[in-house]
Write a structure and sequence with these properties.
about 280 residues, Rossmann fold, eight-stranded mixed beta sheet, alpha/beta
C-alpha cells in the first residue's frame, strides 16, 4: 500500500494506492461520514487484479478541509475536485466503486467522462427514489422548508451514537471492528466539521434531482454493472439495488447479510465478486 497527497485547485487530496499501474484502474469513492479508510481491508484483496486508488474528498479524512469561506461544500464542487484528482493522477480509464455519498459524486464524473468508465460497482450506492429509506421523507421536508432549528437537529447525524449505529445496524453481533467508526468519530471533532457536513446534508437534494440523469447515463452508455447491497441497510433499502435492472437488465445484483457499511462484515464476499469481473473479462 502506498499513501500520498496531490494538490487539486489548491486543495491537498489524500489517497491510498495499491496494485500494478499497468492493471485496469479502480477508483474507490467513499461515503459519509467516512474516508478512504473504509477500504483498508478491501484494497489488498483486489490489488492483484486492479490498480486501486482511493481518495479522501475535501473536508473528509486526511484531505484538506478548507473553510466554508474558501470552498463551497456541494456535491458538484466535490465531484469537480475528485475529477481533477483523477486527471492529475494520470488515470485515463477506470472502474469505479461507489458507496453512499460516493454514488452521486462518481455518477457526476461518469456523466462528464463516459468514455473513461470501464465498469461500475455500486455497494449501497443509491440513484433511485425507490432506494430511499424512511428517514429521507423527513429530509425532503427539511429541504423544502429549511429552518435553523432543523439544521441543528440534523447535526445529530454526526453524534457518536449515530455513527456507531450506521456501522453496526443490521450486522451480526461482534462482526464489526470498532476501528472504522472510532476514526470517523475522531474526524467529527475538527473545527467547522458540523457546519460543513450540514451544508452537504442540505445539498443532498441536488443528488435526488439528478437521479433521472444518472439513470439516463446507464441506459445510454450501458456500463458493466455489479451491484452489491447490504440488505439490512435502513438508509438505502434493497429496492434501490433492484431498480438498477430497470435501466440495465443485465446488471449483476447480489445481496449480502449486512447493513450500510457492508465492507465491515462482508469484505471477503464483496472482494470475491469484484475480482470475478477480471475473470469474466479475461474469458470474454
Amino acid at each position: 500500500m502506498k499513501y500520498g497527497k496531490i494538490s487539486v485547485s489548491g486543495i491537498n487530496i489524500f489517497y491510498r494506492e495499491a496494485g500494478n499501474p499497468d492493471s485496469p484502474a479502480m477508483i474507490l469513492f467513499h461515503g459519509f461520514p467516512s474516508s478512504s479508510h473504509m477500504f483498508r481491508d478491501l484494497i489488498p484483496m483486489i490489488a492483484g487484479n486492479f490498480h486501486v486508488i482511493a481518495p479522501d474528498y475535501p473536508g473528509f479524512g486526511q484531505s484538506d478541509m478548507p473553510s466554508r469561506n474558501e470552498f463551497t461544500y456541494t456535491f458538484d464542487n466535490i465531484a469537480g475536485i475528485i475529477d481533477g484528482f483523477i486527471s492529475a493522477m494520470g488515470i485515463s480509464t477506470f472502474y469505479m466503486y461507489v458507496f453512499d455519498y460516493g454514488a452521486p459524486i462518481g455518477f457526476r464524473i461518469a456523466m462528464k467522462n463516459p468514455g473513461k468508465i470501464l465498469g461500475i460497482i455500486s455497494q449501497n450506492g443509491n440513484i433511485y427514489s425507490e432506494g430511499l429509506g424512511k428517514k429521507w421523507e423527513a429530509r425532503a421536508k427539511y429541504w423544502a422548508s429549511p429552518t435553523p432549528e432543523l439544521r441543528e437537529q440534523y447535526k445529530s447525524a454526526f453524534s457518536p451514537e449515530t455513527i456507531i449505529g450506521q456501522y453496526t445496524f443490521g450486522t451480526k453481533p461482534g462482526s464489526v471492528s470498532p476501528d472504522g467508526y472510532t476514526l470517523d468519530i475522531h474526524y467529527t471533532l475538527r473545527p467547522e466539521y458540523d457546519e460543513i457536513q450540514s451544508d452537504l446534508i442540505f445539498d443532498y437534494q441536488s443528488n435526488v434531482k439528478l437521479y433521472p440523469k444518472f439513470q439516463e447515463y446507464l441506459r445510454t452508455y450501458k456500463p458493466e454493472l455489479l451491484v452489491v447491497w447490504g440488505k439490512n441497510d435502513p438508509s438505502f433499502i434493497p429496492a434501490g439495488a433492484e431498480a438498477f435492472r430497470r435501466d440495465l437488465p443485465d446488471a449483476e445484483i447480489h445481496f449480502v447479510d449486512s447493513g450500510h457499511f457492508a465492507l465491515e462484515s462482508c469484505c471477503e464476499e464483496i472482494a470475491g465478486l469484484i475480482n470475478s469481473l477480471m475473470v469474466k473479462r479475461k474469458v470474454d
